[in-house]
Amino acid sequence: MKIRNYKELAKIAGCGVGTISRYFSGGSISPQMTQRIEAILKTNEYEKKSENAKVIYLLLPTNLNHSYFLLFQKLLNCLLDQQYAINTIFLTSNWEQHDEQQLKLLINSNFEKIILFWPVANGFITEILDFLQPWKEQSILIGQNCPDWTAFFINNERLMYDFTMHLLAKAKSILFLNTKENDNKEFYRGYYKACQEVTITPQQLILQQIGDEDELNLTNIIIDNKIEAVICYEDYPQFLLSKLANYPVAVATITWNDEDINHPWKSAKTMVIDWTEMLTKLVTILNNPDQKAETLELRYKIND
Length: 304
Fold this sequence. Notes:
Blueprint: E1 2-3, H1 6-13, H2 17-25, H3 31-43, E2 45-46, E3 54-61, H4 66-81, E4 84-91, H5 97-106, E5 113-117, H6 125-132, E6 139-142, E7 150-153, H7 156-168, E8 174-179, H8 185-197, E9 203-207, H9 212-224, E10 229-231, H10 235-242, E11 250-255, E12 269-273, H11 276-287, E13 295-297, E14 300-303
Parallel strand pairs: 1-2, 3-4, 3-5, 5-6, 6-7, 7-13, 8-9, 8-10, 10-11, 11-12
Antiparallel strand pairs: 12-14
Helix pairs in contact: 1-2, 7-8
């Protein structure tokens, strides 16, 4: 039987495409799975030879929310469809010594590209870029705006400004809701500027992720301040809001495409970031290794 790609091989082996990718790129898989894959390859014709595998290192944080994890899966499938072998490396929420040691051990000269998938906001992106400097021309950044790098980014401040202004056309009191772990200052600046422009008081609640206490604080601020709309972009605040569905507030969220709009609230508004353009452009860059560095600002739209 002729096996044409990773997906077909994974289906026969009874594993995920990521396992097949790790097999061809020299990653860690169980001895039993290694034997199973090798047995399949010996008895079937496989079009792609392991020695010709094009390796990509895909670096990403451990704390991706649901929407970004779905995007990561779409990105991974896109790369596998292009017949790349993927080494996925999860980095901790803070740049630590063992992160750097892990990368030094894994990254070698036998790879096509390094893709840093970093759509979350935090303070140590500089340290990662400093580490990747020797491989700058071979690196692609997703989620960060960095001059002189090949990068796909979102202008978070402008996005949130536009989103807030859209909401203010119908709501007079808007709460900005986030957690202490994902305190996105760019998002908040956009929200704050919009509130200042229409002369309403900005209101923010930073959840401590303590369960009942957070739910009580959220309920009180909605009632006491007559909140009409809540902006949130994380799973935990959305979960709390789903428990308060009896209160007449519009919930405004951010996601990466229309397929992820599945919230339990009757009057939800969603800012949809257009990642399709990024995936198309990414394939073009991968197929043209001599292309010069460029940055692409991703577009977005609001679904009512």
